[in-house]
Design goal:
The protein is mostly helical. The protein is built from seven helices and no strands.
Length: 148
């Protein structure tokens, strides 16, 4: 398997984690409604009343997976399309996924802001390295840039 195609697997892992966090959020919402901690009407526009802290935290954890990770999926897809994946990109991709898993698990468990922010910033650094490396490659390797 080429390293470009191997980039699919970290993308899949992050996608599956996102699905699990979404399922957990749905289960928390159902439980909160059944227990009477939040009215079903709250979910019409998320403004009618308040929600329990655990539900708000679960929502934010899910929202976090909808913010920066799309930039990860884009860079991996571009790398695969351009056949630019290599072992370093693969290692960076897995590092990004691991850091996002750590950040998400911290958020969903003991929720220490400093620990969570450290994992988040480290994941963003990995993402920046991936994008900058590709940019430098496209600017310096003849034949990779599409003529305009």
């Amino acid at each position: 398997m080429t390293s470009s195609i191997a980039l699919f697997f970290p993308m899949l892992a992050l996608f599956l984690f996102t699905v699990l966090v979404g399922i957990r959020l749905f289960a928390l919402r159902v439980r909160a409604v059944r227990q009477g901690n939040v009215g079903l009407s709250y979910f019409r526009n998320f403004a009618a009343g308040t929600q329990p802290e655990e539900l708000a935290t679960g929502q934010r954890a899910f929202d976090n997976l909808m913010e920066a990770p799309p930039l990860f999926h884009v860079i991996c897809t571009v790398l695969m399309v351009l056949h630019q994946g290599d072992h370093l990109y693969e290692a960076l991709a897995w590092a990004y996924v691991a850091l996002r898993l750590v950040q998400g698990l911290i958020h969903l468990t003991y929720n220490n802001v400093i620990h969570r922010a450290t994992a988040y910033m480290a994941s963003m650094l990995v993402l920046v390295v991936m994008w900058v490396r590709l940019g430098v490659t496209l600017l310096t390797v003849p034949g990779l840039m599409v003529p305009g």
